[in-house]
Amino acid sequence: MLDELAQQLPAGVLITNPDTMEAYRRDRANDPNAGMPVAVVRATEVEHVQTAIKFAAKHNIPVVPRGAGSGLSGGSTAVDGCIVISVDKMNNIDIDPVTRTAVVQPGAINNEVKVAAAEHGLWYPPDPASFQFCSIGGNIATNAGGLCCVKYGVTTDYVLGLEVVLPDGRLVKLGGPRLKDVAGLSLTKLFVGSEGTLGIIVSITLRLIPAQRQPTTLVATFPTLEGTMNAVLEITRKMRPSMLEFMDDVCINAVEDQMKMGLDRSVKAMLVVQSDEPAQYATEEIQLVEVICNRNGASECYYTADPDEGEMFAAARRAAIPAVEMTGTILLEDVGVPIPRLGDLVVGIEEISKNRDVTVAVMAHAGDGNTHPLVVFDPTDKDQEERAHIAYGEIMDLAMRLGGTITGEHGVGKLKQPWLTNYLGDDVLDLNHRIKKAIDPQGIMNPGSCFVMG
Predict the structure, then answer these.
(1) For residue 2, is it within any domain?
(2) What is the pLDDT of residues 296-349, one digit of tens each?
(3) In whole angstroms, how far apart are CA 12 and each of 48, 386, 449?
(4) Beta-carbon contacts of residue 38 (< 8 Å; ≥ 6 apart)
(5) Same domain? 272 vs 176
(6) How confident is the model at residue 109 (pLDDT cuts 50, 70, 90)?
(7) From CA 26, how far away is CA 293, in angstroms rounded?
(8) What is the CATH number of the domain that holds 294?
(9) Residue-level pLDDT at 454
(10) Is residue 450 part of a domain?
(11) 185 CB-contact burial (10 Å; exposed 0-12 / middle 13-18 / buried 19+)
């Protein structure tokens, strides 16, 4: 049967060798239940994506879209018998400085877009911690955020238009290089965050803004979680910094083990705060942050206008996940709550960690309430692994009780799918299913990811 598809694609695009396909079975979540595809299509042209999807629709074969494979929720985990369509080779970037837009393909790396925009004095703000290796297509699939989203917003705020290959192989164009466009339903926004369940995005029109000013950076350490969270709440009530990041003691120690920065291992938490206002105002804003941190019991505050020094502290925050990964196998959360409940969430996670006797490292985009708890366990200790999975579910339940979400930017994927029904409720889940069925009546797009059709 695959001979038919092979005849329709150029040499080298279709991969059927099991050893080669092994690299396309999992994303960064390392789902142990990943299936084996029957083929991988490494598309370099839109027509390759259309051909593969038309073939899959004809033969009722599941399709799993894949970009850089950097996803953290199992959203591009292969299922048995599927065709993985990889768009990592579709990576063109075209900047238009007049309209301040970029037309990019889904395989373009986030940082590559930033660099291309910077050549024209422009900036693409969304900056996940993995910006150096995550793809724009994947960012759109999960509506990724990042360290500066507290001030500048998330991926969807910069998506003006999409070209999407639908589950029947048709190519549709949604939106475009216009700042205002309300004709028809907002289908562009529907596909942002759809996790590959509605189609495959093959082109994106992004909004760019003038280059960011060099930020002034403050680092504050705290002896208690409560004091840290109170400082976050007071900061967000009074100002809008361009970065407001949180690391707990587990993260601090893991990062210090790897980076040897001289971070204080004895503290309970650390905040990294930046202001990118004009120099005079940035200094005033950061000085006010310092007053707030000290008022809430900070053990030390340090700020600098030196861009390299400031970037070093931001890099420490970005390094937190890989640093914690060095300490054991992890189950990665992505729960978010309203900012007034952030303290309850962080303290509650600490209690879960103690009750289940497992390590939980917590980092957060504190300015918008989005946390990334990492439950760490030794895979050779089956009892500890079981406790870790229990803690993972309890953290999800805690976030929902606090009026939060099971995912702020990593997506539901396969790892969080069991909690989706309780989070959405029956009526909203039914509406999701109806939209999914209307666009993908065969149910071939990324089955089992995000939500499972009845």
Answers:
(1) yes
(2) 999 999 999 999 999 999 999 999 999 999 999 999 989 999 999 999 999 999
(3) 12, 43, 28
(4) 2, 16, 61, 81, 82, 83
(5) no
(6) very high
(7) 42
(8) 3.30.70.2190
(9) 57
(10) no
(11) exposed
Residues 244 and 320 in one domain: yes
In this prediction, residue 326 carries a pLDDT of: 95
Number of domains into which the chain is organized:
4
pLDDT of 155-176, one tens digit each? 999 999 999 999 999 999 999 9
Tokens 């300015």, residue located: 367
Q: For the chain, give me the number of helices (H) and strands (E)?
A: 16, 18
Which structural domain, as residue segments, surrounds residue 154?
93-210
Confidence of residue 357 (pLDDT cuts 50, 70, 90): very high
Residues 395-433 as b/e (b if ≥16 CB within 10 A, e otherwise) read bbebbbebebbbbbbbbbbbbbbebbeebbeeeebeebe
Indicate the pTM of the whole model. 0.95
Residue pLDDT, tens place only, 248-260: 999 999 999 999 9
We report the CATH number of the domain holding residue 352 as 3.30.70.2740
* 162: DSSP letter: E
Domain harbouring 79, CATH code: 3.30.43.10
Task: Provide the CATH number for the domain around residue 196.
Answer: 3.30.465.10
Residue with tokens 């993995």: 130
User: Domain boundary residue among 149, 179, 210?
Assistant: 210
Give residue 451's pLDDT. 73
